[in-house]
Write a structure and sequence with these properties.
The chain folds into two domains: about 250 residues, Alpha/Beta hydrolase fold, catalytic domain (Rossmann fold); about 55 residues, no CATH class. The two termini are about 30 Å apart. The protein has about 325 residues and is α/β, with parallel strands linked by helices. The protein is built from 13 helices and nine strands. Helix 3 packs across helix 5. The chain is about 40% helix and about 20% strand. The protein is globular, with a radius of gyration of 19 Å. The protein has a nine-stranded mixed beta sheet, with helices on both faces. The N terminus is likely disordered.
């Protein structure tokens, strides 16, 4: 286990009050490392933050697309007295080590990583950290990962942010339909082939960035999961949140997903977009927010998550 510790001092000037937050880098296993962020007073609850699709790091960023959404969420939780662990997706660590083979990557690898994080703190290092409650917070694709991980290792609650109630194939078709409707039929034929025979031989060149050969095994492993059916198996308290200016996942997906949960609640936040920022515009302003780390998180999002975690505690 590799652990490096550094202290970051975050000053909040309200009422002349300051807090010292402890940030610790922890290697969970050969695929996962991340940041444990703890408040000054001991937290009994650990929130595990799971990033969305693509090569997303622990802060919610991809390449030049720096918005720091998940980092901001972690610091908000710490300010509320709740510890969190956020981590880079395994594809980033494998890429850094020149060991990424996309043909071997499967969706359930991400599920195993999330479950491994829970078990690291709950089973293998419980005496060291002393957390008693575990909350999974999954964003976008990470919402589905959180659902599946909760069936592999017991947690006390889930927060699903901007997740879908539909299988990935339906969401992908819906997104392409809005941007390039002339590609929809070819996409449906390719997805059908992927699901039935496991690969696609003939791909429309305009869809190659989505369906290229090396990524097909991963996509097939993702397509088999239906979030609504999985939700029906989850007994833990679950908060589902969607945003009205989310241009990737419609806000109503939150309502639909919550309806399949045994103990679910949904909240639709006005003017919150896919990277959890308050954005009223659906086009240019929205797109710019993906690369603007200075925009704060939605205040309603912050209060809803804090209230939910307190109710679980």
């Amino acid at each position: 286990m590799k652990v490096s510790v550094f202290i970051s001092f975050v000053f909040f000037f309200s009422f002349n009050y300051a807090q010292d937050l402890q940030s610790t880098n922890i290697e969970i296993n050969q695929f996962v490392d991340g940041t444990l962020l703890e408040p000054p007073s001991k937290s009994k609850t650990l929130a595990i933050i799971i990033a969305g699709s693509g090569p997303t790091n622990r802060d919610g960023n991809q390449g030049i697309g720096k918005n720091n959404s998940l980092k901001k969420l972690a610091y908000h939780l710490a300010n509320q007295g709740v510890a969190s662990f956020r981590y880079d997706k395994r594809i980033l660590k494998l890429s850094r080590e020149n060991a990424l083979d996309q043909t071997k990557l499967r969706f359930d690898d991400f599920v195993k990583d999330a479950a491994d994080v829970v078990n690291y703190f709950k089973l293998y290092h419980n005496e060291e950290y002393g957390f008693e409650k575990f909350i999974l917070i999954g964003h976008s694709q990470g919402a589905l990962v959180a659902q599946l991980a909760s069936l592999k290792t017991a947690v006390n609650g889930l927060v699903l942010l901007c997740g879908s109630s539909k299988p990935f194939s339906e969401i992908l078709v819906s997104q392409v339909e809005k941007q390039a409707p002339f590609l929809v039929q070819d996409l449906k034929v390719s997805l059908d082939s992927l699901q039935k025979v496991g690969y696609v031989n003939k791909i429309n060149p305009l869809l190659n960035s989505v369906l290229y050969k090396d990524v097909q095994p991963f996509l097939k492993s993702w397509l088999v999961h239906d979030p609504s059916k999985i939700a029906e198996q989850i007994e833990e308290p679950t908060l589902v949140i969607g945003g009205t200016t989310d241009i990737q996942i419609p806000a109503e997906e939150a309502r639909s997903l919550a309806e399949h949960l045994q103990n679910g609640k949904f909240v639709i936040i006005e003017n919150m977009n896919h990277v959890l920022k308050t954005v009223k515009d659906l086009s240019l302003e929205n797109q710019k927010s993906y690369t603007n780390p200075n925009l704060p998180l939605s205040e309603e999002l912050k209060s809803e998550i804090a209230a939910f975690i307190k109710s679980v505690e």
